[in-house]
């Protein structure tokens, strides 16, 4: 199986790919809402001017945890006999809990503000939907390539 061919460099590149996507999303958020929430959120303390080193490190640590959760729950490396739906639930639960902990630890936004939590839920749902759509497209493309290769081998 392809899973066995992965090395530490595969996982490191996965962390940096995840980090890059997270950073891109936060840059877009920063450009659109950064100045209006800079007094409100530690993530956007610099407004449209950029991100602090502390914020970048927090987002990197989030990417590491997300990648570890992916490796743990969404590959067959450690958990093989668990239903895929349950593995997905465990993955997303881990990610959500991690973000909630980060909100509290790093003061990403006031924990008693329902509109902030609604915004988080909405953006998380949108990013999750986009991620699932991209993953399905990637899977479909890979399956088509495998079918074509199998067809060539059978000829």
Rg for CA atoms = 19 Å
Largest sheet: none
What percentage of residues falls in helices of 4 or more residues? over 70%
Overall mean pLDDT score?
Answer: 88
How many helices? 4
Give structural notes.
There is one protein chain. With 155 residues, this protein is mainly alpha-helical. The protein is 75% helix and 0% strand. The protein starts with 7 loop residues before the first helix and ends with a helix.
Concise synopsis of the structure shown:
The protein is mostly helical. It is built from four helices and no strands.
Strand and helix layout:
Elements: H1 8-37, H2 53-74, H3 84-106, H4 114-154
List keywords for this structure.
155 residues, mainly alpha, 4 helices
């Amino acid at each position: 199986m392809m899973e066995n061919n992965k090395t530490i460099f595969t996982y490191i590149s996965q962390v940096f790919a995840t980090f890059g996507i997270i950073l891109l999303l936060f840059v877009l958020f920063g450009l659109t809402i950064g100045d209006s929430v800079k007094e409100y959120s530690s993530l956007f303390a610099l407004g449209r001017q950029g991100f602090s080193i502390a914020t970048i490190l927090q987002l990197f640590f989030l990417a590491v945890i997300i990648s570890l959760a992916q490796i743990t729950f969404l590959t067959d490396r450690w958990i093989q006999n668990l239903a895929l739906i349950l593995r997905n639930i465990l993955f997303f639960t881990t990610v959500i809990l991690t973000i909630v902990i980060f909100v509290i630890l790093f003061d990403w936004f006031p924990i008693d503000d329902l509109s902030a939590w609604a915004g988080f839920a909405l953006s998380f749902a949108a990013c999750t939907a986009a991620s699932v759509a991209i993953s399905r497209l990637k899977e479909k493309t890979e399956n088509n390539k495998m079918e074509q290769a199998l067809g060539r081998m059978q000829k």
